[in-house]
Amino acid sequence: FEVENTRLVGTGLVAHMGRMTHGSLASQQTVLTKPDAERRFRCMQNHSATHALNAALQSLLPITCQKSSLVTPDFLRFEFAFFKSEIDLAALKNIESHVLELIQENRPLKRTEIDSEGLLSLDNLVTLPGEVYPDRVSLIDLGTQVEPCCGTHLASSADILNFVIVSCKTS
Predict the structure, then answer these.
(1) How far apart are CA 29 and CA 160, in angstroms?
(2) Which of 62, 13, 87, 114 is nearest to 79 (CA)?
(3) What's the pLDDT tens digit per position in 84-104?
(4) Taking Cα atoms as reference points, which of 160, 130, 131 lies closest to residue 51?
(5) Beta strands in the chain (DSSP E)
(6) Residue in 53, 156, 75, 72 with CA at minimum distance from that of residue 111
(7) Angle formed by the axes of helices 89-104 and 37-60, nearest 10°
(8) What is the pLDDT of residue 85?
(9) Are 162 and 99 in contact (CB under 8 A)?
(10) pLDDT tens for residues 2-23?
(11) Distance of alpha carbon 123 from alpha carbon 95, whole angstroms
């Protein structure tokens, strides 16, 4: 069974969606699972990098807002809106350099849990517009801003290792 997505379905319960790559499963069958540690680590790197990228965008662009993101073991995609007519090559290099600085600074990625009502009292909170957060939510703190997130993350920005922007499309 290859997991393609996960979803929080209750307090502490995570549903794993995916497809069978071989064999079969029956209802009420007991199974032994073994996570793919290398794949999970690469996903953690890219997921933590999305937070570093969002922090860079928040600090470098006048007004920016994350629209969505996709994290895979091989790459991340980050969609955002911004208040500026265009992003040129120099701006992309500046964003990339800012993320690389966050990586080199070896910042701890602090994870804390909070009631969703407590989100309103945080000063440096960055949220995803329209997102509905569960009653208890994890906060990821890179030292620049705090973002609610239910994903899996590294302990330090240095573990991201590297970051490069390979394409940028504007619409």
Answers:
(1) 38
(2) 87
(3) 667 889 999 999 999 999 999
(4) 160
(5) 2-10, 13-19, 64-71, 76-82, 110-115, 136-141, 146-148
(6) 156
(7) 120
(8) 64
(9) no
(10) 888 888 787 767 888 889 999 8
(11) 23
